[in-house]
Amino acid sequence: MSKTIVRAVAAVGVLAIMTGLAACSSDSQASGGGAHGKARISLVIPGPNDYFTPWKQAADDASKKFGADVTYNVPASDAFNLTQQNALVDSLAAKGYNGFGFFPGDATGTNAEQQKLKSRGIPSININACTQDPGPSLFCISTDVYAAAQYQAEQLISAIGGSGNIAVLTSQLTDPNTQLRIKAVKDVVAKTGGKVKLAQVVADIDNPQSAPPAINALLASQGSSLAGVMSTSYNPSVAMATALTDSPQFRKIIFIGAENAPQVMDALDKGYVYGTLFQNTYGMAYAAAHALNKVISDGCTVNPNAPFSKNAQTKKLLPSDVLIVTKKNAAQFAGKPESLPDDTAKLVSTIDDKVLVCK
After folding, report:
1. What residues have CB less than 8 Å from 328, skipping those under 6 apart?
2. What mean pLDDT comes out for the span 122-133?
3. What is the DSSP code (8-state) at residue 320?
4. Distance separating alpha carbons of residues 234 and 208, to the nearest angstrom
């Protein structure tokens, strides 16, 4: 064999070894334990929604705390749009972002985008909602939305005295959480043995444009017969709180909203709203950024025996707490993005102690 051929064979062998090492590195990074370096993390949602405003503060705080580059990014869309979210993620990855926290644009469709990232050694975590197993994300940090909606519905039914007609205001039917919430309410209503009737589910109204007319139409048609209303989403809560503030004739309706928009908290303080369900929106995003930073910068991996919970979509759920806030305890929580700091601390410590393994 000539020296030229020997050198060529050797070069091919070295190239194969290098390719194999690169592939191993990519697989390692995708499950955690990638090459150490500075984290550039994007917390990205499928479209504009004021509910996610605390993610911006969480990203800023995480950047200062960890020395990472954490940003909050929203696609240029007027509604939740999976295609636009994926395009934004592709653009950010091309610019060097090496970790992503997703609010999934679709329970199954987001898996494909996360698989693309995984093939490049880029880890992802789902936040506030989970994708359908099996999926490539490291895990999901979210409220157990079924349990939260169940709790909210039980509180509403108790507040109306255990009988009467209720309505549910909720988000896009493509939102991974929406179907779980609707099912939870239906299950709670079924347990009343007919004493409570779910008169209407008003969906696809979680934006500032569609929520007010939908609420006005509901009140015009059924306002006199509704004993209670609950909202699982931000913009319908604002619209309902505004309607009850402006229309005294409907204030007999017991209303439990969602989150801490100024309009909701003002109506709560005035007694027009019974309560509102707080999720730890800030804490879930902050904890995800913390976990991604440790995976990227410190080479941590996910513990195969991590004490995850499970829901209808995933067996890799790290659950975040919820709380019904009423006039009695509103002063303790209102106006703070980090509205449930004890839960945030618990999420971070659980990630450090039980979810990640760091060498």
Report:
1. none
2. 96
3. E
4. 9
Strand-pairing partners, residue 301, are: 32, 357
Element spanning 42, H or E: strand 40-44
pLDDT digits (tens, 9 = 90+) for 94-121: 999 999 999 999 989 999 999 999 999 9
Distances (CA, A) of 43 to 93, 124, 212, 253: 12, 10, 29, 37
The single-letter DSSP state of residue 310 is: -
> How many Cα atoms within 13 Å fall on the side-chain side of residue 354?
14
Between CA 83 and CA 92, with CA 89 as vertex, the angle to 5 degrees is 145
Domain range summary for the chain, segments of one domain joined by + = 36-144+281-321+340-357, 146-279
As a whole-number percent, the residues of the chain with pLDDT over 90 amount to 79
Q: Are 192 and 157 in contact (CB under 8 A)?
A: yes
Task: Report the alpha-carbon distance of residue 302 to residue 152 in Å, rounded.
Answer: 32
Let me know if domain 36-144+281-321+340-357 sits in CATH 3.40.190.10: no
Q: Are strands 124-127 and 164-169 parallel, antiparallel or unpaired?
A: unpaired
In the predicted model, what is the mean pLDDT of residues 170-197?
93
